[in-house]
Design a protein that fits this description.
This protein is α+β, with helices and mostly antiparallel strands and 176 residues long. The chain has three helices and nine strands. Helix 1 crosses helix 3. The longest helix has 29 residues. One of its GO terms (molecular function) is phosphatidylcholine transporter activity. This is Phosphatidylcholine transfer protein.
Length: 176
């Protein structure tokens, strides 16, 4: 597994790439898209739900951050598509922030207004999967020191990776 850090644009951008030897791409995507299951395994979820506004499914997600940092929240839309590319089945998930009046900013929580996420996953040719996950966002009102953010983000990214592997294994054992 590999990672990248901050992009030259000044936006925070994280990329993970690698694979899970014992998990099919379909199972990975199912787990990734399951918000209710995420609430069970992700200790950083403060609030997470999907509602339909003006015919569009919108996700609200508040993420717990450790003291002295403020919690962040995201309002975004996402879509998952299964594609056939030169005989290879690839699942692609795209998400981006939106602004909807039904999800106003909350006092004391930093709204991440510029947010994009992508996931591309396919079979590793055996029994597992390989893919690339990327998240890009800008903490527009965040003015704390960079080393605090870098330290917390590194820990959260590492925990996300460990928890992702755990959640896939838990769901896999439920489906057998």
């Amino acid at each position: 597994m590999g990672t990248d850090g901050v992009s030259q644009s000044g936006l925070y951008e994280y990329k993970l790439f690698g694979g899970l030897a014992d998990c099919t791409p379909k199972l990975c995507v199912d787990v990734y898209m399951d918000l209710n299951f995420r609430k069970q395994w992700d200790q950083y979820v403060e609030e997470l739900h999907e509602k339909t506004y003006d015919g569009e499914k919108v996700i609200y997600w508040e993420v717990k951050y450790p003291f002295p940092l403020s919690n962040r929240d995201y309002v975004y839309i996402r879509e998952c598509r299964e594609m056939d590319v030169d005989g290879r089945k690839i699942w692609v998930v795209l998400a981006q922030s939106v602004s909807v009046p039904q999800c106003p900013e909350k006092p004391g929580i930093i709204r991440v207004k510029s947010y994009k996420q992508s996931l591309a996953i396919e079979s590793d040719g055996k029994t597992g999967s390989k893919g690339k996950w990327s998240r890009r966002y800008d903490h527009e009102s965040y003015r704390q020191r960079m080393y605090v953010l870098a330290r917390c983000t590194k820990r959260k990214t590492g925990n996300f990776t460990k928890n992702s592997y755990y959640k896939v294994n838990v769901l896999s054992s439920r489906n057998t």
